[in-house]
Every structure is written in structure tokens, then in C-alpha cells.
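Hi U.,

Before I forget, here's the chain from the pilot set. I'm dumping it here mostly so it's searchable later in email.
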Amino acid sequence: MMTPQLRLLPLREISVRVRNGTPHTIGTPPQAVLDAIGPWRINDGWFADATVRDEYDVLLEDGVLYRIYRQQQRWYVRGMYD
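Structure:
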């Protein structure tokens, strides 16, 4: 059995609807999130321009597993698993 590998993608903002604090639908047109794991808090706060974001792995209804993150009020795709 092979372990899925995260392939980073060019950064792009996405539309995410949240239910009970977890991503529920993603994209336009929206796809249902079948399963979500996270968040993992990334906090590089030791310098003036600190990066703080919450990352999730989400399995969509089309079978694709993505890594997404929320930074402030915006959501982005970070990568997908092969």
C-alpha cells in the first residue's frame, strides 16, 4: 500500500462554507466535503510579519483529497494528495 503524497499547487483562493466549525462545501460549483481532518494551526509568530493559519485535509465528493487552509477570513488550496 502506498502512502499518499502531498503535491503543492499554485496558491489560489477558494470558496468554503463552514458548518459547525468545519469545512462543509468547497468551490464553485460547491462540492460536498465527505470527511475533514484538522485544523492544524501553523503559527510562525516569532517575527513581525507572522503567519497564522489553520490547515485541513478534506475529501471531496469527487474522491479528491486536498489540503486547504484558512488565513484570517480567506480560504486557499495548498495542495492535493496523489
